[in-house]
Amino acid sequence: MSNTKFWKPAYQLFKPEEPLNKPEDLRDFYVQRANSPVDSLITSLEMEDDPAKFLLAGHRGGGKTTELRWLQQQLNQDYTVIWVDTETALDRYNIGYAEVVVLIGVKIFETVLQSNWGLNDELLQNLGDSLKTVVLQDEEATDAGLKLPEFIEKLGFILKQGLNQKLTKTVNIRPVLSEIIERVNAIVEVAEKKSEQKLVVIVDGLDRHDFVTALQMFSSPLLTELSCHIIYSIPISLRYSPNFRQPMESFQKCLDLTNPPVFECGANSQPTLNNHSDGRDVLISIINKRLARLGNSYKGLFNPDALELICEKSGGVIRDLIRLARASCEVSLRKKLLLVDLDTAIEAVQQVRKDYTLSDYHYPAMEEIHRTGKLNTKTYNLPGKGDFVICDELLQNKFVLGYYDERRNHWFDVNPILIEDLERWKPVG
After folding, report:
1. Domain-by-domain residue ranges, the chain?
2. Fold of 36-256
3. KAP NTPase domain spans which residues (predicted)?
4. How far apart are CA 312 and CA 417, in angstroms?
């Protein structure tokens, strides 16, 4: 067998940008983590009679989509679950609460149309008319006789371009949104009675937006006015920002998907250099469960010390762990090896480290967090950006990572892949 043929199956197992969407991947690859909010969400939904709105916060690549897919699988028997993927349906540069509200309305509309609940045609017609209004207010839409598939397709195109860009120059979108919400709520009320199941809408992908966009979006009360259970993913920088304290009160609960820790924290939530064995075991299991699909010939593909290193340098961020595993396969292929040894893992870490770009003003804040385990509200000013909280940026860019201790208290530390950079800076600082 050629070197390429040997490494390709392992390389294909580690796709950092792909969450576990397929049922068979969830079955074979999912690893329960100690602080997953899934169980808490299921319990909270069971306790809520009225429509509840939840937030799920975590680092980019921390596994939120996978956890939400797992949640969807657990809820499917007792709830009608509607998945809303904003990343593929909306443009990241032209997105706000208006696009999100309309997209949720579209997904509920499509779900009801495909169901056998026997809803009143008038309810569906009313919502369809409201959604069609958005299409017909677009200056390029001229055919008022658009059929259902055509106007849904056209609406998707308009949402992708951004409602604020396309419509608000000539029309106030707020009354249209209020009408859509009102008519969606009328359908939800009847649908839940007919199906004898509560609707749960899972809105994935909003965590991938920058802090300013996310703050504007989630400060709108419209995201909480739909009368069904909704779970929104949000950026971790928003979760801990003092600017989000008041808007966050509009939601029942903000749950945290923290990373499996690779180091322990001290008594006062201060970072240490002591290995966290349970956290590392979770990460090792994630790698080994994927390799198990390839059979015994790939068992032990990573030397124990190499596996230990990539787990440590991932900081517990699942996507970064998978990225390091894939990079290790690339390096091993180039070196014509049949396993990943420590030197190969070191080279892979160095390769992935190049994805991070630190600025001078980051280092003092990182040093303080590494020393205390706590965030602060210190600001910095950049031309064109103005004043901003440095820790918001550190969290958003994964320069700093968040964890829970055994008492479920938050603590923070510098991403382990950047520790050497911080150590080199210290003598100068």
Report:
1. 3-15+272-353, 36-256, 362-425
2. Rossmann fold (3.40.50)
3. 45-216
4. 8
CA distance 27 to 371: 40
Burial class (CB in 10 A: 0-12, 13-18, 19+), 275: middle
Spatial neighbors of 178 by CB under 8 A, at least 6 apart, are 222
pLDDT given at position 170: 42
User: What predicted TM-score, i.e. pTM, was given to this entire model?
Assistant: 0.86
Of 29-33, 97-101, 107-111, 173-177, least confident by mean pLDDT is 173-177
Q: Which amino acid is at 203?
A: V
pLDDT at 168: 47
Report d(CA 136, CA 154) in Å as an integer.
10
* Backbone angles phi and psi of 36, in degrees to 5: -65, 135
Q: Which residues neighbour 161 within 8 Å (Cβ) at sequence distance 6 or greater?
A: 91, 94
Give the residue from 233, 282, 320 showing the smallest Cα distance to 33.
282
**pLDDT in the model for residue 296:** 92
pLDDT for residue 5 is more than 80: yes
Q: Which of 33-37, 56-60, 80-84 has the highest mean pLDDT?
A: 80-84
Contact 27, 203 (CB under 8 A): no
pLDDT value at 241 more than 60: yes
For residues 369-388, average pLDDT: 91
With tokens 């600082």, the residue in question is 429
Buried b / exposed e along 39-64 (16+ C-beta atoms within 10 A): eebeebbeeeeebbbbbbbbbbbbbb
pLDDT of residue 175: 75
pLDDT of residue 208: 85
End-to-end CA distance of the chain: 52
Q: What is the pLDDT of residues 57-82, one digit of tens each?
A: 988 889 999 999 999 999 998 999 99
Architecture (CATH level 2) of domain 3-15+272-353? Orthogonal Bundle (1.10)
Q: How far apart are CA 350 and CA 346, in angstroms?
A: 6
Contact assessment for residue 342 and residue 381, using Cβ atoms and an 8 Å cutoff: no
Residues 6 or more apart whose CB falls under 8 angstroms from that of 51 comprise: 226, 227, 228, 229, 230
State the Cα–Cα distance between residues 203 and 103, nearest whole angstrom.
10
Distance, CA of 209 to CA of 206 (rounded, Å):
6
Residue 31 CA: distances (Å) to CA of 27, 28, 67, 282, 410: 9, 9, 10, 7, 22
